[in-house]
Structure formats: structure tokens, C-alpha cells
Specification:
Elements lengths: L27 H7 L2 H15 L7 H7 L4 H10 L14 H15 L5 H34 L3 H38 L3 E2 L5 E2 L15 E10 L2 H7 L2 H21 L3 E6 L2 E6 L2 H16 L7 E13 L2 E3 L1 H10 L7 E3 L1 H7 L5 E5 L3 E3 L3 E3 L2 E5 L11
Parallel strand pairs: 6-8
Antiparallel strand pairs: 1-2, 3-5, 3-6, 4-5, 6-7, 8-12, 9-12, 10-11
Length: 386
């Protein structure tokens, strides 16, 4: 990524150009919130705290200071989700220069290919984008619910609340990232132990559903709220949002306790991964029960399949994923189903009762015989959820 910086042109920026800070005041919503001089001053102060200083560099100057061409810098900025900028916009700081050097240094030092470095940058950008939206909305909702503020006032109040939260949030982010990375490394050599003491390696008992020889054996499950579409028509936006948040929270608790991972949430549906077939089955049963017993939630359908998957960009792909997704529609409200291959893996484990169902034609898979799974002997997974 290090190349000729000679294309940088334009006069240098001398001193902070705060009047060029883009507050997007042409947007009527943002203009109403931050249109006053006091609010704009608070925005600039918070902006400086977050970015390390006031914005004082145009794109060409930031690329030049990082010893990159604007074309190479633009690749990194696009991976990080930055907007398109004109040559005159004062947008960057010294921290942006440092970030450019870090990403390009991974390539120049021979540690990563350019494609890999940009992919890592994109992963950080996409996940933190969702994270900060979540955090802002959580803070706003808390002020509205517990301090009696209007939504607009709560959003203005954020400007004075956030500076005191930056350090703890930054620490929590770094801590959680290190913990998650440590857990991911541990999973690389994970071996699942059965109740009888025998071990189940990642390559055992994992059917290749689509005959594509995918690399990893994992369990994939989906939990889907029943009647979500009709509920969304009857509820107002805030009530519906609270319902979805409660559903996601309950699912995240159960999946975490069961040693699984939430892969993604899509409105009324949660997709999760398990490292062992038994763990995935326990999570599935606990999800169905805990949602069924929650008076504020409709029931859920849950389907789970143990097979081979292809992990890419934080998501999972392959026929195993597709089959699990299709099976959800064949599940009774409050129930759990698996496919026949998964049922064979679970057979003999007293924690699970397996009941074959009628054969159904499943799009993309032909005739499939779902197997209903219910709780057998042993402790309930959700007993550990407070």
C-alpha cells in the first residue's frame, strides 16, 4: 500500500478549522437537535475527545502524512466505512494518519496480504458501527424511561453524558475483544466430551449435508418467533422494539450459558452456533422452553442441525445452515426439531427424547424427515440463567 505520495496537492490547513466540521445540519432532524451554538460547541468538544484532537487534515494531507497515495488510503477508508469526501473537507486527525500506517504496515511488513488487511479493517468497522448504534440507543432509551426525558432531549443530553463514559466503554471493548479472541483460539483445538467420557472430535459424526466437503463440523440452529408479522402490525414501534430486544436478550443468555455463540439476529430470528451436537441440542431445548415460559413473548420455533459449515466474515455458510433454516418452518410453536443425521448423533443420550415426524419435501433438499426432540433426564440448561 505504500506508494507515491506526490499526488497530494492543495494548501495546507493551518490551525483548527472547526467551522468546516460537518454536523450535517442540512438534515432537519440533526439540525433541530444540534442547531444551537451550545450544542454545536458540545459536539465539537466530544468530537475532539473521540478523535484525539480537532479535525485538521484533508484527505490528501492525511494520506501524505501516512506516506500513502490517496488511492491506497481510500481503499482503507472504504474498508473502514468512511464516506466519500471532497478535496476541501477537513475530516481527519493525527489518529487517522496513525490508523493508515497501522493497516498499511501489516502489508508492508509482509505479515498480511492487502486483501487480508482490508478484510480485518472491514470486520472492525462493520461490527463497531452496529455496536455504537446499539450503545447510543440504549443510553437514550434509559434516559427516556428512567429520567422522564423526551427522545430529543435525551439525544442532546448524550453530549454531556458520553465524555464520562468513554474510558469505561473503551476498557470494556478492549477487554471483551481480548476475551473473545482467547475463546476463539481455544475453540481451534476444541474436543467435545460425551457423558460416558469418550470424546467427539470436530471430524467425527458430522455429515457433509450437501456433499461439498466443507471444513468445520459445527451445530447451527435458528430460533424464530411465532406470529411476529401479525404482532408487528398491531404493536407500536417502541413496544415492538422492546419485544425484539427481550427476545434477543433471552436468546443470548441461553446460548452463552450453553457454550454457543450468536452468529446474527434478523428481526424475529436468531441464528446460533454450537461446538458439539449435544451442546446445540441443549441450547435448542432451553431456548424453546425459556421463551415459551416468558409471558411477554410469543412462542418460538427452534431447529438445529449438526454438520459441516464454511465460516466467512463472521457468518456461516453451506447446506447445513440452509437445512437448519428450512426446518424452522416445519416446527410446531414451542417445539424443537433436528434432521435425521443429527438425531443419529444424539441417539442414546438420555438427556434427549427423539420422535421421528412425517417426511416432508424441503426446498433444495428433497424429502427430509424431521425429528422432534424433547427433554429427557438430566438438569435443565436454563437453570443456570439468572
Amino acid at each position: 500500500m505504500a506508494d507515491d505520495p506526490s499526488e497530494h496537492t492543495g494548501p495546507p490547513v493551518t490551525g483548527p478549522q472547526t467551522e468546516q466540521l460537518n454536523l450535517n445540519l442540512h438534515n432537519p432532524v440533526q439540525s433541530n437537535l444540534y442547531g444551537s451554538e451550545e450544542s454545536q460547541a458540545a459536539v465539537r468538544h466530544l468530537d475532539s475527545l473521540l478523535l484525539g484532537s480537532q479535525r485538521n487534515l484533508r484527505r490528501r494531507e492525511a494520506a501524505r502524512d501516512a506516506e500513502l497515495s490517496t488511492a491506497s488510503a481510500r481503499k482503507i477508508w472504504r474498508a473502514l466505512g468512511f464516506p466519500n469526501l471532497s478535496d476541501d473537507e477537513v475530516y481527519f486527525t493525527g489518529e487517522d494518519v496513525r490508523a493508515l500506517r497501522v493497516v498499511s504496515g501489516l502489508v508492508q511488513g509482509g505479515r498480511l496480504s492487502e486483501e487480508a488487511a482490508l478484510s480485518l479493517a472491514r470486520s472492525v468497522a462493520q461490527l463497531t458501527d452496529r455496536m455504537v448504534v446499539w450503545q447510543v440507543e440504549a443510553l437514550v432509551e434509559d434516559m427516556v424511561a428512567h429520567q422522564g426525558m423526551t427522545d430529543a432531549r435525551a439525544r442532546r443530553e448524550l453530549l454531556s453524558v458520553l465524555p464520562d463514559l468513554l474510558e469505561p466503554l473503551e476498557h470494556l471493548l478492549d477487554y471483551a475483544w481480548r476475551r473473545q479472541l482467547s475463546a476463539a483460539v481455544q475453540r481451534l483445538a476444541m474436543r467435545g466430551e460425551r457423558p460416558d467420557g469418550t470424546t467427539l472430535t470436530l471430524h467425527d459424526a458430522a455429515p457433509d449435508v450437501g456433499g461439498s466437503a466443507l471444513p468445520l463440523a459445527r451445530g447451527v440452529g435458528f430460533a424464530d418467533l411465532v406470529s411476529y408479522t401479525s404482532l408487528s402490525r398491531r404493536m407500536n414501534e417502541r413496544t415492538l422494539a422492546n419485544l425484539v430486544q427481550r427476545f434477543e436478550k433471552r436468546c443470548a443468555e441461553v446460548i452463552s450459558i450453553g457454550g454457543g455463540r450468536v452468529i446474527k439476529t434478523i428481526g424475529d430470528e436468531v441464528m446460533f452456533l454450537s461446538e458439539t451436537p449435544e451442546g446445540g441440542a441443549q441450547i435448542s431445548l432451553a431456548l424453546a422452553r425459556i421463551i415459551r415460559e416468558d409471558e411477554l413473548l410469543p412462542q418460538a420455533r427452534v431447529a438445529f442441525v449438526w454438520g459441516r459449515v464454511l465460516p466467512r466474515l463472521g457468518d456461516l455458510y453451506g447446506p447445513t445452515v440452509n437445512l437448519a433454516s428450512r426446518l424452522v418452518a416445519l416446527t410446531d410453536p414451542g417445539g424443537v426439531v433436528v434432521d435425521e443425521s443429527t438425531a443419529r448423533v444424539l441417539a442414546g443420550d438420555e438427556r434427549f427424547v427423539l420422535e421421528p415426524q412425517a417426511t416432508c419435501n424441503v426446498r433444495g433438499f428433497g424429502d427430509v424427515r424431521p425429528v422432534a426432540i424433547t427433554q429427557g433426564h438430566g438438569p435443565l440448561l436454563e437453570d443456570e440463567v439468572e
